[in-house]
Amino acid sequence: MRQADIYRKDILAGILTEDGGEYCFRYDEKYLVREDKQPISLTLPLQSEAFVSPVLFPFFDGLIPEGWLLDVALRNTDISILDRMSLLLLCCKVCIGSVSVVSKDNEGGEA
Is 8 within 8 Å of 98 (Cβ atoms)? Predict the structure, then answer.
């Protein structure tokens, strides 16, 4: 099982989990009660129930770089292009926009 904290503007918004070929995203309860809460994506509206999918959610897959930047990541690691969760964890801690992805294996704080 692999997990990532999902931050929106440096505030923990939820947790993304990959376990046994299934993906689950759940908003953090503390995030859902914030006055300034916003969904991380229109395809992942605010709700307390988990979103579950057999493939990585398109929003998160869209954060993974493409083209030459993806080639650099693949060339410098042993990650397969098909291992989307590993690529997300490797490449998306700091990305364009308000969302960042931080591996739960990384101890040491916020995005």
Answer: yes
Cα separation values, 17 from 3, 27, 67, 72, 98, Å: 4, 12, 26, 25, 20
Query: What's the length of the chain?
Result: 111
In degrees rounded to 5, what are phi and psi of residue 97? 105, -170
Q: How many CA atoms lie within 13 A of 19 on its CB side?
A: 9
pTM of the model: 0.86
pLDDT per position as a tens digit, 92-107: 888 778 899 999 875 4
Distances (CA, A) of 41 to 83, 84, 100: 22, 18, 12
